[in-house]
Specification:
The protein is mainly α and 331 residues long. It contains 13 helices and 5 strands. Strand 1, helix 1 and strand 2 form a beta-alpha-beta unit. The protein binds tryptophan (TRP).
């Protein structure tokens, strides 16, 4: 039997994990945990490219880790770990830096965007961010990386670096491909249905977290923007209600069509109320497991330690191979 291919993903511990992240990506990860050797990292080193308040940062990173477990990623099946616990990431980053051109990095759209937003802190990490991401992916000989539109360019440069290295030294890295989920809903902001629901939207009413309490979820759906008329219909010129229908469908596995049949003439108020309840119901067990996990820091650190150990064993092999190929003296 062929060994399973590696699927790699990471999330920065900033903002909140939203129901959009869930519907667009995480729900699918849960389904493919048996099909791939899946690796899920908390990309805490990437998050350092913008200033973090140490106490909050530590708490949020741990919270994200607990949310991964609470939502159903299984540490027996998948490798779940903190990027900063495996020093090979930054080691490979350095090695790959020497095969990456400054011009390639200054041209990255995200670098340009973030430089504008953080004009007072355009640090080397911000510039080198894509190489750390390339190291993340290439360390594990990953075949697939699920990426949204905003990370596509980073995966492209990862492929370029891998191919460049392979051409110089012979087959060393698996060249990763974007992973396109078989199904996945694109969910937009509750306050602006033309913008993707973002984990770091400054407007707290724009996004719902997967561990949010019931009252707050109900309130946010009540306040969700709607379109001018009051008919529940999925139509291009009704982006707000269409978005809410997408969410309702993703959370209940009911088709948009059957929801429209039921709610067409019942008005937005009733629709949003029932949608809120469906979301509450869907995530209540996640929230409950999450709160339990956060009360058991010993368990969390043990799972994190085991994850880092497994990741480290895989990563070590790649770094050793790279060093040998480059011509560093074997230790
Ligand atoms: N840069 C990604 C983001 O902000 C997070 C990330 C870090 C990542 N390393 C990765 C994603 C490796 C996929 C693979 O969304």
């Amino acid at each position: 039997m062929e060994p399973k291919k590696v699927l790699y993903s990471a999330i920065q511990p900033t903002g909140i994990i939203t129901i959009g992240n869930y519907a667009g990506a995480i729900a699918n990860w849960l389904k493919v945990q048996d099909d791939y050797t899946s690796i899920y990292a908390i990309a805490d080193l990437h998050a350092l490219t913008v200033r973090q308040v140490p106490q909050e940062f530590r708490q949020r990173a741990l919270s994200f880790f607990a949310q991964y477990l609470a939502v159903g990623l299984d540490p027996e099946k998948s490798v779940i770990y903190f990027q900063s616990h495996v020093p090979f990431h930054t080691e490979l980053q350095w090695l790959l830096n020497c095969y990456t051109y400054v011009g390639e990095m200054t041209r990255m759209t995200q670098f340009k965007d973030k430089s504008q937003k953080n004009a007072d802190n355009i640090n080397m990490g911000l510039l080198d961010y894509p190489v750390l991401m390339a190291a993340d992916i290439l360390l594990y000989q990953s075949a697939f990386v699920p990426v949204g539109a905003d990370q596509k360019q980073h995966l492209e440069i990862t492929r370029d670096i891998a191919i460049r290295f392979n051409n110089l030294y012979g087959e060393t890295f698996v060249v990763p491909e974007p992973y396109i989920a078989k199904q996945g809903a694109r969910i937009f902001s509750l306050q602006d249905p033309t913008a993707k629901m973002s984990k770091s939207d400054p407007d707290p009413n724009a996004a719902v977290s997967i561990i949010e309490d019931a009252d707050s979820i109900m309130r946010k759906f009540k306040r969700a923007v709607t379109d001018c008329d009051s008919v529940v219909e999925f139509r291009e010129d009704k982006p707000a209600i269409s978005n809410l229908l997408t969410i309702f469908s993703a959370m209940t596995d009911r088709s948009v069509e059957s929801l429209v049949n039921e709610y067409h003439d019942l008005g937005y108020r009733r629709f949003k109320h029932d949608l809120g309840e469906a979301v509450v119901e869907r995530f209540a067990p996640v929230r409950e497991r999450y709160l339990k996990l956060m009360n058991d820091k010993g368990y969390l650190s043990e799972v994190a330690r085991q994850g880092a150990e497994r990741a480290g064993r895989m990563a070590y092999k790649t770094v050793a191979k790279v060093k040998r190929k480059i011509g560093l003296v074997q230790p």
